[in-house]
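$ fold --in a.seq
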Amino acid sequence: MLFAASLMTAGMLVPAPLLAHARLLRSEPAAGASLAESPRSLRLVFSERPVAELTRIWLTRANGDRFLLGVPQRDSADQRALDFALATPLAGGNWRVDWSTASRDGHVIKGSFNFTVEQSAPQAAAAEQPDSSPVGAVTEETPLPPALSGAFGAFATRWLAFLSLFAVIGVVAFRFGVLRRVGADEDADPFLHIASTNAASLGIAAAIALLVSALLRLFRESGDMPDVPLATMLLSTLWGWTWLAQCFASLAAAAAFRAIHKTTGRSRHNAWKVALAAALVLSITPALAGHAVSGDWSLIAVPADVIHVLAGSAWLGTLAVIVIVGISAALKTPEERRPGERVASLINVFSPLALVCGGTVLATGTVTSLINVSPLGALWTTPYGVTLIVKLLFVALLFGAGAWNWKRLKPRLTGDNALVPLRSMASLELVIAGVVLGITAVLVALELP
């Protein structure tokens, strides 16, 4: 129940209807327009760059005739606009446009609008569907059934993905950034061997959880786009390739962590290298499936997001591994050396790493915020900005808890009586970190200002 408070707090930050990304800015013809003759094409302009392969438009006449338009063309001068050519002139009367699309990070949105053609023209044949929308009605909606495609299901899936990703990277950072500096030979040092093996066990669970979150997300996204073939979704979009990379990297990480249990010596070391490579691949996936890749500053936002994830995971993920694995390994190691001394050796190595990573998180987070929140007034006037402020407040608490642990508890670590307060304070720090990740799961589902 360590992160139960995180899930409940972050999940209540933003009401469900706000959990949508891109929106339709305008259309040609405009909603409610009355045209003298049939348009030659339809044009949709969104607040973010949509994926043409995932965009569908249906035209429905008042008598129920309905047909699907072909693949849209992207405007080279405006990457947020899509044009649909009309091969056949539209007959006179009221027409409804039903559209669905997804931004480059996979968020699905749908909507509809109406326009009227005054002059009669030959009509394209189609299947039937009643037209019940009044002229001029415009709706934009993200379906919110009670299943996994609902707003809370989407949040929980992303929250699980962030927690799992931080844990996988944290396990690798713990082994290469902490244990390797405490001692070099895992086979000769029982403490290092126990800590490394138990960390790998945690890595297996985290990698499997990350794979499950990816499968749940695919189920949700494909359910929101029933008219798009799965092969198109996975193989023709950046979101799909990112999803495949996450799945394969999660499987590779789980296999590598499993191999660590069965091997020793060079083979064990090579398994850790495979886990390291998989963790690096996984660190890129949030940037390629979130706001970073969708905006106009993606060349800056994507590297900043990758560094942000790596630094945050190396800091908080490694701390989680120390609390869950490191302290218990020190208590279980059958040696004369006191457990407090073992834990002190871990913290002494971890503290400089945490300071560097914390500063990096602050710097990259500032860059990302400046890119995403424009103008500055959007920070307190938009759902994204307000949620970001809440996140920053919890980040400040996180830094405060870390500073307290470093200044008050670190000097006392050589004594075994300091292990209990250290574990308690570090657990509190991790709960706050869980809340921060939960708020992040909400942020990535909100429309940018």
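$ fold --in b.seq
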Amino acid sequence: MMTLCLAFLGVALFSPGASPGIVIRGRVVDPAGAAIAGASVRVLDETSRDTINTAVSGSDGNFSIDGLAAGSYVVVVSARGFQEKQVRVDQPQDGTSVLPAVRLAVLDCDAPQVNCDVFTTGDYTDPHRVIFRRDLTVNANHAVDLQDGQLVPRASAEADIRVDSAGGALFLVPLHKAAFTSSGAEGSCGKTRNQDPMRIDGLGPEVEIVVLTRHKQCSRLFLTGMIPAGAEQATFHIVTRSR
């Protein structure tokens, strides 16, 4: 009887239809390609943005997350002093997905609690003067004037961005010729322009979002905390500089 039970268990465990689960592996590195130890890795369901599993990179920067069902995921990687990064992963029915090296950029000097003296030879200076700097909580369907950091009516001509909630997701939307861009030389806005809505639920406090405002100033928005799935608001540390 014992032999029969063990045989039955073996069939259940190793039958062709049984799946050991999906494994995601990768390595976290800095801009120079050196390993980043202790980086936080979160696997989110692509649709709901719920956290499915987590891991921490080892001394060699490597991480591994297993036991995942087949599907599509967003892998979110963050480390203190670096910008959080998202990597979309489409999973096969079974097997291991090895990601290319996840290279994290250094956080901008305007980010909260960033000491730029660590990365420079002297006191940090920026040739673009600060127009304003503040924390601001924005509810879904509210808009923001990034020239003075104030909430404004959704349809206002003074609005640069708004937060939208749709289908359980939270989006940041540029308005009135404002556009998402990238950090350029000496802290200026880069040359890229993108006016597509940006999904922000599921993201954490190391995210830096750069916006070229309707007045062609450069504004940086840093999330001050984790935005959970289903959130209806986000709090930003906003710094707007002249160009």
